[in-house]
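Methods — Computational structure assignment.
A single polypeptide chain was analysed. Its primary sequence is given first, followed by the predicted tertiary structure written as structure tokens.
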Amino acid sequence: MLFPVLTTEGIPMKLNTTIALFLVALLVVPPALAQEAEDPGFQDTDVEKSAQTGFKFLSLSLDPHASAMAGALTAQDVGSSVGMFYNPATMANMEGTVDVAVMQTQFIADINYNAGSIAFRPASGRFGVFGLSVVAVDYGEFQETIYDPNTTYRDLGTFSPTALAVGLGYARALSDRFAIGGNVKYALQDLGTFAVGTTEGGSLTSKDYSKATAAFDFGVLYKTGFESMNFAMSVRNFSPELRYEQESFELPLTFRIGVSMDMIDLTSMDPNMHSFVLAIDAERPRDFAEQLKIGGEYKLMNILALRAGYVFPTDTEGVNLGVGLQHQLNSGFGFAFNYAYTTYDVFDAVHRIGIQLSL
């Protein structure tokens, strides 16, 4: 019996390395991420992974550049916001000294996210790149009531849940192709202080429902050497378990593998006039099914950017669209404005805006 044999004869060495890394990722990462059941008698069945995590604000895509491309920016080095919120290793390739980004997201149910990031590259990157990020969430105002046998319920006024995350990151290029990075962040979610019962004298007893923890992100970025193709992996929101009452939960741990490339490299078009970056991320979250994120960005003269992206499978999220304007002065000062628009089946569309400054 004859068996087919695969060879790499005639394929450039750089491309061989890229193919090898990609195959290793496909073979090694999925088994490593598989979650085994604690019960030894457990049989492998299809299980719906829903509502298994808390602090969900840490998993929302906040950067309008990334969101317009469906969040597929794990393998792109485009600023401090991508480094601090998607893959910390991407900060290592920052060219300037300082990069600052501020972002605002008008999410569903009148939930507002405000975020900012800054990356600092001292001594031309000799000591690596340092980053700082902040996310603040306003969940809006809610009515608090408590059951009272005499009046059925009592109105106790309103409360406003909030969330906050502050992160400190570091990235370093180990070579002209390989970079690593990590973030440590303090995450706090304050649901409020609520009445949970009454004393014998009729006074209310209350309990504070706020939790805080440390979480960690890790990432690697590899420039394959085949044109502009990048390959990257990241782990976000690694943390210990938390507990509110009887049920414990973990943060939204997420594993990602991503690849990106400027497809204009494969054509004879002028790269100073046109670019079209295609990015693909495979994501394995803890609390829902695996997803594939595909995004594209066409840029004209390095000034105007048109972006689109799609995530599948997904329950309600639709298409992602976005636009960006950027300009680089001769002095090295750069400015960019980004906007993203995301549709949902049963909710209003989500709008994201952001401004990026670099020097």
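Note: The CA atoms of residues 237 and 334 lie 31 Å apart.
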